[in-house]
């Protein structure tokens, strides 16, 4: 009986072993989707989707006007001579790779603030600014909006221009931060809707956060004139609204870093305590270095110290310390007089190429016999241009001409060169004349 039991037990053990293995395998399969099976598929990135389609296109005529990065007249990525020189100087210093301070190096932060507000601006002189290094402009926006979400004592609501960079509402959504839109772009004039913007801002609740593009508005390329900025500043101050500037293109719009910062400086001069997100992706070509800054103007030194302390707490819990290479390049350029002068020449050269391409594109479209008005191409400024092409026309120009751009008709002027401008113009004329 005992032998039978052993035999039975051995058989049972084998059977159990087999079942156990099956259960483990089934459990492993189940656990792949047990916790995350309900996660919905995220929306694909529009710009990356355009790039992928462009890369798969075998046509020799193809043109990518969707990329949001500067290209030279050969359509190649461009490294600024001032950046190359800064890299050489940094290499010669044989610096270590220790952690940067949580808020970033002091010299870097001071240089960023001075570039934005001016060397002798009141906040700089009084040291009432809390400035920290961030992961480019996107990181500055996320950190700033997160700070607002946690500490803002007024109406916790962000007002975004319509349209705006797609990441603005996306960041708000991630933070569960409510937002509304104010009129900005006028499709009829293809320019700034100053009356609509003023009317909408006048009805914004006291304490609302107003997001403003400092220059080279993305995606429209439409900027308010100086007197219109002054009008907006007056309304925002009278209505007790809070201005948050996104300045991703300082120097890249007009070729002058001071002129491109005029909106921010008008608001500061009018007594606003602004929040400012800066990026050095475009104006120094440091896209992959992800280097930027966030500044909060606080009114007094004591408040600035407290705000800085909380920004550092946030940074510590997200990425602990900022990266050092990109900030070293920026600091080297902005604190070396000779190198800074070279950079100002470099950034103006980029801006001038964009401005030249706008003129050539407009002239070529008009020269092709178009009956439409195209003055908006040269009236707008910066890397992007709202062409006015409809989604149907965008589909046509992509399918028939192999020219890639976003559905709303936005093009990156940096993708236009002296070699393809005639073809782009002829293609635009083709889809808009029939």
UniProtKB/TrEMBL annotation:
User: One Pfam family name from the record?
Assistant: Aminotran_1_2
A Gene Ontology cellular component where this protein is annotated is: mitochondrion
Record InterPro entries: Aminotransferase_I/II_large, Asp_trans, NHTrfase_class1_PyrdxlP-BS, PyrdxlP-dep_Trfase, PyrdxlP-dep_Trfase_major, PyrdxlP-dep_Trfase_small
Give the enzyme's EC designation. Answer: 2.6.1.1
The terms under GO molecular function for this entry are: L-aspartate:2-oxoglutarate aminotransferase activity; pyridoxal phosphate binding
Co-factor requirement = pyridoxal 5'-phosphate
Which terms under GO biological process does the entry name?
A: L-aspartate catabolic process
Q: Which UniProt keywords apply?
A: Aminotransferase, Pyridoxal phosphate, Transferase
Q: Which SUPFAM superfamilies does the annotation name?
A: PLP-dependent transferases
Would you say which domain of life the source belongs to?
A: Eukaryota
Tell me more from the record: In eukaryotes there are cytoplasmic, mitochondrial and chloroplastic isozymes.
Entry-linked NCBIfam families: PRK09257.1
Recorded family membership:
Belongs to the class-I pyridoxal-phosphate-dependent aminotransferase family.
Instruction: Report quaternary structure and partners.
Output: Homodimer.
Spell out the protein name for this chain: Aspartate aminotransferase
Q: Which organism is it from?
A: Chrysodeixis includens
